[in-house]
Write a structure and sequence with these properties.
Layout lengths: L1 E7 L7 H14 L4 E7 L11 H4 L3 E2 L5 E2 L1 H10 L8 E3 H14 L9 H17 L12 E6 L9 H14 L4 E8 L2 E2 L2 E2 L2 H12 L6 E6 L5 H10 L7 E5 L7 H7 L2 H9 L8 H18 L6 E9 L9 H13 L2 E9 L12 H16 L2 E4 L8 H13 L4 E4 L1 H13 L6 E3 L8 E6 L13 E9 L8 H7 L14 E9 L1 E3 L4 H6 L3 E5 L6 E5 L6 E4 L14 H11 L4
Parallel strand pairs: 1-6, 1-7, 2-5, 2-6, 7-10, 10-11, 12-13, 12-14, 14-15, 15-23, 16-17
Antiparallel strand pairs: 3-4, 8-9, 17-20, 18-19, 18-21, 21-22, 22-23
Helix pairs in contact: 1-3, 1-9, 1-11, 4-5, 5-6, 12-18, 14-15, 16-18
Length: 574
């Protein structure tokens, strides 16, 4: 196994995830089998209970693992399917060691950070690195490991020590370390002192980077590269310049243009790996497709999407959804014009409210009314829910393409029940526990006494109903299947696989009433009792899905339902 470790310094959020993902993609384009591991130093066991407004979205894997959003990046770039064990956290690794100690696995020894915790980290990495993650179902050739946070943080100490030990355990030509650092610009001058200090910190911790990736808003000057090389005691060709680009999908092109593949190949002796010609050719085709799709089109038409949500202050809270919209617009050679609308601003202000609240209300509705498509994503809690309901109602009544995801689907049901079926008090028990018309209810099998890992999680089947075959637009966009989905073309049944993360569902007691008034559930689970996809017939695109289609969207394999929504919004669905 070849290991590539990516660490960061100076500040967090410097772009390690994008650079790590790009490295993995470049290795795959050479025909190698690549896997990725993310280490997060927080004490949480997983990302399931972390606030999206603070930490970014919680990404869900096929096996139901709730993980950091960087694992979503890995899957999108590499077209791989990772497991929950590809995510390592401080909480998870300490839990693992403590359980072993309680079982007596350490035979009475005093359990310490070194060697027991650091050994456990290395053993975890080595075990998970060999798990097949792509279509070959074979053990990977290379494992890329990203260490979250910055080297020097107190919580990173055990992991830094373990990664240093892993280098000795892996041996020569099987370990490469890339450190990502920031080159700030102060009064027009590129400053290298922060990077010099960061490298000193890394080396004092026992790591010695083979390559230094320098992030900067502008292209690095030759003088700057020389100073980094000189003061950090590396050759100039070991300094990689990663300036800001129009799209993160262009970063692999930037890295390749600087000879990163030959550099990695030389250090890791990648030529010694026996790579079949078929995989090399497949990798070349992947790279050609990537460059074609991610190249900015000339004078593209824009499609305006209003995202009506709860966490609109930070795009990281909707990272996968934004990426999935980009995948779809890139496939159509369109430009995404994404407008974020705080759902609470769509709620009618009281007469006593301040003029600023009225201005927020008018501005929010102006954005919704000018949009070509309206998207209501997932979320939790009552805040902003009435604004979401109003947005769904507006899209339904005015024939504006609409996509509701998870909570967004439930919002569409509430609107329809209230304003079409005449159930004026209809609501979700999550939003109003006292509602007299609970069209959305708790899932009875879940444990509501705790938050972590208690939702309906991971990849599950959705069966399109035979009656939808003649008219359903949602079914039509799934008919052309991709490797992530399963379809049975020998019968009238179409079965797809999508990832879920929810605690509430449509109340089966109201299905007949809703359907009688025109809201049809075209997709259900394998029991036929759990509603997965809703749709209106006489509408350009009014679809709600209980699953999260964005979790499976890839650059080279966009989500079908999001492609359908974007196409309807752009006026090219046919």
């Amino acid at each position: 196994m070849k290991y590539i470790v990516v660490t960061g310094g100076v500040i967090s959020g410097v772009g390690k995830g994008t650079i790590a993902s790009s490295i993995g993609l470049l290795l795959k384009t050479t025909g190698l089998k690549v896997t990725m591991i993310k280490i997060d130093p927080y004490m949480n066991v997983d990302a399931g209970t972390m606030a999206p407004a603070e930490h970014g979205e919680c990404f869900v894997l096929a096996d139901g693992g709730e993980v950091d959003l960087d694992l979503g990046n890995y899957e999108r770039y590499l077209n791989v399917t990772l497991t929950s064990e590809h995510s390592i956290t401080t909480g998870k690794i300490y839990d693992h060691v403590i359980k072993r100690e309680r079982k007596g696995d350490y035979l009475g020894k005093t359990v310490q950070v070194i060697p027991h915790l650091t050994d456990a980290i290395q053993e975890w990495i080595q075990r998970v690195a060999s798990v097949p993650v792509d279509e070959t179902f074979e053990a990977p050739d290379v494992c890329v490991i990203e260490l979250g946070g910055t080297v020097g943080d107190i919580e990173n100490g055990p992991f830094v020590e373990a990664l240093g030990q892993l280098k000795r355990r892996a041996g020569k030509c099987d370990y490469l370390h890339i450190h990502v650092s920031l080159i700030p610009i102060v009064q027009g001058e590129q400053k290298t002192k922060p990077t010099q200090q960061a490298i000193r910190t890394v080396r004092s911790a026992g790591l010695n980077p083979d390559l230094i990736a320098c992030r900067c808003t502008d292209k690095l000057d030759t003088l700057t590269i020389g100073k980094v090389a000189n003061y950090c005691q590396v050759n100039p060709d070991q300094v990689i310049a990663v300036a800001d680009v129009a799209s993160t999908y262009l970063v692999p092109v930037v890295l390749k243009s600087q000879g990163l593949i030959p550099s990695m190949s030389s250090i890791l002796d990648l030529q010694s790996l026996d790579t079949p010609l078929e995989r090399i050719e497949r990798g070349a085709r992947r790279w050609a497709s990537w460059k074609t799709l991610t190249a900015p089109p000339n004078h593209p038409k824009a499609v305006t999407i209003a995202l009506v949500g709860k966490y609109t202050r930070s795009l990281d809270a909707y990272m996968s959804l934004v990426k999935a919209l980009q995948h779809a617009t890139m496939a159509y050679k369109r430009k995404l014009d994404l407008v974020l609308v705080d759902a609470s601003h769509l709620e009618s202000p009281l007469a006593s409210t301040s003029p600023s609240k009225t201005a927020e209300y008018e501005s929010a509705w102006r954005k919704v009314c000018e949009a070509q498509g309206i998207l209501v994503p997932g979320g939790f809690g009552a805040r902003g829910s009435e604004g979401m309901i109003e947005a769904a109602k507006y899209a339904r009544e005015n024939k504006i393409p609409f996509l509701g995801i998870c909570l967004g689907m439930q919002i569409a049901v509430i609107d329809f029940a209230r304003n079409v079926c005449g159930l004026s008090g209809a609501n979700s028990v999550e939003l109003d526990p006292e509602t007299l018309s609970p069209v959305i209810i708790n899932m009875p099998e879940l444990d509501y006494s705790k938050l972590g890992g208690t939702m309906r999680l991971g990849e599950r089947l959705t069966h399109f109903q035979p009656s939808s075959g003649a008219w359903s637009k949602a079914r039509a966009v799934y008919t052309s299947c991709n490797p992530q989905q399963t379809c049975d073309h020998n019968s009238d049944e179409l079965v797809i696989r999508e990832r879920h993360r929810h605690r509430y569902e449509v109340n089966p007691s109201y299905i007949e009433t809703l359907a009688r008034h025109g809201l049809e559930f075209v997709g259900k689970d394998e029991t036929g009792e759990r509603m997965e996809i809703l749709e209106l017939r006489d509408h350009p695109w009014f679809v709600g899905v209980q699953f999260h289609p964005e979790y499976q969207s890839k650059v080279l394999d966009p989500s079908k339902s999001i492609m359908g929504f974007v196409a309807a919004s752009a006026g090219c669905l046919q």
